Every structure is written in structure tokens, then in C-alpha cells.
Amino acid sequence: MRLSALPLLATGVAMATLSIAGPATAATEVVLRSEVTPQPLNPARGDASPQASVLWGDITKDVPSGAIIEFKEGFASPPHIHNITYRAVVIEGAVHNDDPDAATMWMGPGSFWTQPAGEDHITSAIAEEGATIFLEILKGPYLVQPSDQAFDNGEKPVNLEAGNMVWLDADAINWLEVPGQSQENGAEVAFLWGSTAPGEANGSLLKIPAGGSGTISGEGDALRAVVIQGNAELSGADIQGSSPLPSGSYFSANDDSAPLLTCTSDAECLFYVRTDGSFDFASR
């Protein structure tokens, strides 16, 4: 089965296609969550600060970055703003992120939200578990600033709880590649943000059933993917043997490498996919 998505708009969010791109310096790059040293996301808060494990880029510089953020049980921030927009997906636990006066809405694993630059808000982690999330910025540095510096950059926030996502299989999003093929128990995608026009940035969630596998490739050289749920494995011509991918791990690939991605869990695997343009996932 091949998923090859086209631009789509749903639930007020510009939807991405299945397209990914990776760094031109390496055909395939793998970074495990366990290999990255956590650092304070907001050093001014000392030990109370969430911890950031940067998977790519540098959140202190004006470059695109992706990081795993860990919140302690019961973490609650004061009202604040950020100088840049970020996007996030919950990996473990639950998070509330909204205006300071908004009613609490806990977003569990697989949920997605955006936080526009300049908008006053609070962030909390559920008391019983804390929370772990994946956070992405398209430019930095990532700064925490006081509410009296709030500004309106024209963006609107999005809180999309996992249970409200719409999942599409290849029958629904591919009108050209696989006529007549059954998609039962195949991969699915939920589009999150951006545009799938050539060269345009976008992000989506890719769901692979337990034991499922397929090659993943994109139109360009900047495909990045993060394991949100489950355990996976990556193999390819430029990888010796195969590389395990526990949750929170990251890999990138370009359109020449097309590595084989396998869900090795007893349950489905979920990946956040970041790309320019569109990407393909061809089931095996």
C-alpha cells in the first residue's frame, strides 16, 4: 500500500501531505532519546524548569529545532509568552495549554497543539504523571518572556485532543497511485498544519499498525520523523543492520535513502512527520 497525500483542509487546520525531507549532509540520521542530554528549557526556573532533550537544531539559536520536553508531576507555569511560535505533540502523561483563565482541558498522548508567538498562556502537567512532549520550532531562539510583553502576530492557537483527530487511509487520500488495492489494516495519516505544495513546510501524524512496515521517502532533503507512541525499527542501505527506535527517538531521511520503517510493538505506532512538500509511505 502506498500513502501519497495531497493538500487538505479540515477542522480549521491547514493539512499536510505525506511528504518528508531530511538533511542533505546524511542520507539517514538516527538520534535516540537516550543519547541526548537534557537541559533546562527555562533556566530562570532552576530545578522547577522543564527539561529539554534536543533532537535536531539548537533551541538557543535562530534555526529550526525539535526537542523532547519533560515536565515534572504537577508542573504549572505562571502566565507567560514566547517570542516564537511552537507546535507540540504529547508523548506521555497529559498537558493543559491555554489562556490563563481557560477551563482546564487535559490533552493525553497523541494530542497536538500550537502556541502562537506573543500570546499570553499557561502550561500545566497532570499531577499524577507529569508529561513528556515533542516540541518543534521553525526558528529560534526559544525564549520565555513576561505577559506584559504580549503581542498579536495574527496566528490562532489550536488544541487538538487525540480523540478528535480524523484519520485517513490510502483509499481516502490517494486517488492515483493504488486503484483497486485493499487498505485493510494499512497505515493512516492525520494532517496537522502547513501546506504540501512543493517546498512548503508541513507536519502530520503517521499511524502504522502493529507489525506493519513500509518505506518512507519525500520530495526533498529534509524529512524528519519522531516516534510518539510505540517501538519501531529503521533499516536501509546506509544503516548497518537495523536501528531500534523507542518512543521519543528521531530519524531523518532524504529522497534517495527511503529507509524501511517497521512497527515492532504489539500495538500501533505513531510518528510525527515533518517535511517540505509531500511524502510517501509504501507498505510492505
Structural notes for this entry:
- This protein has 284 residues and is mainly β.
- The protein is built from 1 helix and 25 strands.
- It is globular.
- The termini are close together.
- About 11% of the residues have low confidence.
Percentage beta strand: 35-45%
Q: How does the major sheet shape up?
A: 7 strands, antiparallel
Work out the helix count.
Answer: 1
Q: What overall form do the CA principal axes indicate?
A: globular
**Runs with pLDDT <50, length 5+?**
4-25, 175-183
**Helical proportion?**
under 10%
Please state the average pLDDT score. Answer: 85
Gap between N and C termini: 7 Å
Using DSSP, what is the number of strands? 25
What structural class results from the helix and strand content?
mainly beta
Strand order of the largest sheet: 5-6-7-13-9-11-15
Order of helical and strand elements: EEEEEEEEEEEEEEEHEEEEEEEEEE
**Roughly how many Å is the radius of gyration?**
18 Å
Topology of helices and strands:
Layout: E1 2-4, E2 8-10, E3 13-15, E4 28-31, E5 39-40, E6 51-56, E7 65-71, E8 81-82, E9 86-93, E10 95-98, E11 112-115, E12 122-125, E13 131-137, E14 144-145, E15 158-160, H1 170-173, E16 188-194, E17 201-208, E18 213-218, E19 223-229, E20 232-235, E21 242-245, E22 250-253, E23 260-263, E24 269-276, E25 279-283
Antiparallel strand pairs: 1-25, 2-3, 4-22, 5-6, 6-7, 7-13, 8-14, 9-11, 9-13, 10-12, 11-15, 16-17, 17-24, 18-23, 18-25, 19-22, 19-24, 20-21, 20-23
